[in-house]
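Amino Acid Chain and Its Fold in Token Form
===========================================
Structure side: the spatial fold of the chain, written down as a series of whole-number tokens.
Position: the record begins directly beneath this header, with no further notes in between.
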Amino acid sequence: MSTVDLVLTDTRVWARGPATHWDAPPSVVLGSNGNLVVGESLNPPTQVSSAVQFVPAERIALLPRVPAVSEALTAVFGTALENLGVAVPCERITLVCPTQWGGPRRAVLDAAARRFAHDVAFEDMAARAVATDEGTARSRRTVVLEFGAITTTATAVTRSHLGVHVEACEYEPNLAVADLGIEQRAFDMLTALITRLLDGRPADVVQAVGVSDPAKLDLIGAAAQQTCGPDAELRPISGAELVRGTQQEPEYRPEAAPALPANEWLQPLRERAAAQAPDRPIAKYVLAGVAVVAVVAAVVVGGVVVSGGSDEAPAAAPSSTAPITLSVPPIPSLPPTDSPGPQETVGRIRFKVPDGWRLTPPSGQNGGRVDLSPQDGARYRMTLVQTPVAPDAGYEQIAANLEAQMKQKPSMSDLRRDVVFGGRSGLAYLERPEGSTVQWHVLVEHGIQVSIGCQYVGNTWNGFEPTCENFTSSVHVVP
């Protein structure tokens, strides 16, 4: 069965179904037969009213009739689904409504929408605006401005590993976007509204929902910089951007991350060892090679764990005989990290490759994983694993899954929560395959589990950390 998204404002309704989309004014006007006609312009010479604007009321005066608001909303929803070609009843209608609306107004919408769907869900418009805008991913706080026909709502929204959260909301019943630029008082009211909302807290981004007039946007941008600081970014958000195509997320079934060929790390190490110590007995090189193979085998186990486990047999345990000493030659300095590097997109992950690093493209067998390594052969690796998760398999479920794995993997440290790395808050733990260390950071965004592993040998983390942190900060999940 189909699912439908409906974004509602006083002056426009945007709808999207499985196959197409539709938008029009949420207007109702009496037809020649007395029925309600939907979609007429809200500014004609004839009598017409916005069904959304009249939700707080019981009836709409469309003389000679005075139809109930529920009848008007039923006409709007029915027209939307008819234009989407969706059979009634559909599986679910998700209503994205003005953020300041409380339970009574939503109850009116719910009663009308349930005539057309088995289930009705609600989302705050401010939360949807932030969730669908990738430009807010690094914002400490985003101010969302929703302009109604004669009102304005300002909402502070934050992001965390648990998702998008409405922090505070302020409502100004006497400010409309049409007033901006006409009266200085309107501009002063807008700045006062944002200042009251933030109450001294910082904000990096201001979104203007449904505003496209360049002159109006300039004024809103000036208000944003006056209240949030000169670096505040203004981002216009259209109604079309607020509706998203419905898609079924796959069930959360962690898969083992495929291992890379062993020679990617072995060959550069052998070449350096031969160049730096040509007079050593050949037997030591054989032993060193065996030790490195054990390291790579352990790395394979680490890749399995980060994706949530596997039924494959673990790598063979190291020999119980006397330990083998691996002499590690000096590691060259890491490439600079201040250059942004080229941007890459793999699956639903977008990231930047640091200067001096190379990307190993995913093959058909490891399409959910990519690896990056220094071009000079230094013994570092950054691994990026992406795993789709179901909507109900969020932060807590993934944390519980990893903790269950840790009980059976002595090479893994305890799981740490709410660890901030690269400007991102998520899960973190250490993996210690023999001879190396992997720092894992796990994020959950937009239905994707992203695991970022930074692998190194010896006590070289302090020099490697800036590179790994910069790389982590460049990783984005495409909504």
